């Protein structure tokens, strides 16, 4: 039996649909998906099987112009994922087209991924007309020598099988890198924290989701098969704590209920989830928080 295995980095602008595509390919939710940009912070590996090929997808933070230390670490993680991959897949949102941001990514690819096969996946094709897609494909292929172009809808599933099959055939022969039934290369503590952060991000508005993080402080596997999980929501300001809690604690309670149900479904066992909100004004500048998110800390960055 000739098995294949390798890494495929998903790159693109924020909100291009990378996390949605990762979850579609894996067949389970391993990366959080929201309508807000820059919600993926760390490199998240999702593992998909295609025949005798194991595809390790690396969902990277969206590429954008960084302003803060966290932004710079996220962008570095994205390019690190691309540099380490066997194949790079650039996702471009059909409605936005060849933006300045996409052009900047293409320019960077020429420097950072020379000789590496790069597939183009034009996403959300159900939202634009066919002639627009054709023109966009021509423009993008004129800007970069893509190995293959795919028209997909990560949300609806259109074209995703073709993309997966092509990637599977292009990856090098070799033994599988993970057990066949493993779907993610993330500690369960971090997956649980990301699920809670997703629920907070969907419920909160404006800048607050970008100034909070969730960490799993304690995880206890109980004799009855359930798990007790204690998590801390770190916010940057006192005013944010009240917003996260909500009137009478209603917001945090609702978030906890939603997160507990999804974590329990993911683990396939009962979960007792306890959330606490703490103010840490400088969490965005703390090395420990970066380590918890799987991001590289650089002194003076």
Structural class: alpha/beta
- Summarize model confidence as the mean pLDDT: 84
Indicate the proportion of strand residues. 15-25%
Assign the CATH superfamily of the largest domain: P-loop containing nucleotide triphosphate hydrolases
* Major sheet size, sense and barrel closure: 6 strands, mixed
Shape descriptor reads globular
Helix count equals 9
CATH first level of the largest domain: Alpha Beta
CATH topology of the largest domain: Rossmann fold
Low-confidence stretches: none
Query: In percent, how helical is the residue content?
Result: 25-40%
CATH architecture of the largest domain: 3-Layer(aba) Sandwich
What does this 3D model show about the protein?
The chain has 301 residues and is of the alpha/beta class. It folds into 2 domains: 4-170, Rossmann fold (3-Layer(aba) Sandwich); 188-293, K homology (KH) domain (GMP Synthetase, Chain A, domain 3), CATH 3.30.300.20. 37% of the residues lie in helices and 23% in strands. The strands form 2 sheets. A 6-stranded mixed beta sheet has the order 2-3-1-4-5-6, sandwiched between helices.
